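Minutes, project check-in

Agenda point 3 was the complex the collaborators sent over. CS summarized: two entities, 225 residues total, and the question is how they sit relative to each other. Sequences were read into the notes so everyone works from the same version.
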Amino acid sequence: ETGVTQSPTHLIKTRGQQVTLRCSSQSGHNTVSWYQQALGQGPQFIFQYYREEENGRGNFPPRFSGLQFPNYSSELNVNALELDDSALYLCASSLTSASYNEQFFGPGTRLTVL
Amino acid sequence: QKEVEQNSGPLSVPEGAIASLNCTYSDRGSQSFFWYRQYSGKSPELIMSIYSNGDKEDGRFTAQLNKASQYVSLLIRDSQPSDSATYLCAVSGGSNYKLTFGKGTLLTVNP
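CS then shared the predicted structure for the full assembly.
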């Protein structure tokens, strides 16, 4: 069984640029959630995708957007990067969108905005 | 009021001791509770989930849930240096299908 994978591992961008992060969900899982984790903080929910539809969104501006594909892999896009966007971006997959389902995290993408 | 609160630590225990990690939450409708372990520079790893009041044991780990007190804890018996990590408490359910995390508690197990 393949776990959650993310790419790239690390990324360095400059302020104002755009970035796309990718995530492949665990086999059999149809739900992907994205989280942002700043240094010393717990992960913060960005949004969730269930069967290719956005299923909920946290307190993040519209320049954070996403997609889910028919194979349930997902992308997180961030436009007009700001210095505060520097963080570890985590993707988690779960069997379904039900709140009792365990979420399993990928290794993360470390984004640095200069 | 923060939604999920944890003692930030650091919590330091000697090898072989019991480490006790605590978490409180504000949403009374929360139904699902999770403990994640995060090593420095790595992503969170699920170690326990608990849904009903009482204790749930898995190896050296015991999760305890008290919904009336809005309190969940994690006990680690026979602590090992390899248990040194940040432990994140996460809550979902009720009005939230997402995971809401605390800031985490840094545990150090001294040989």
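Noted in discussion: Residues 15 and 111 of chain B are 5 Å apart (CA to CA).
Follow-up: revisit at the next meeting once the mutant set is ready.
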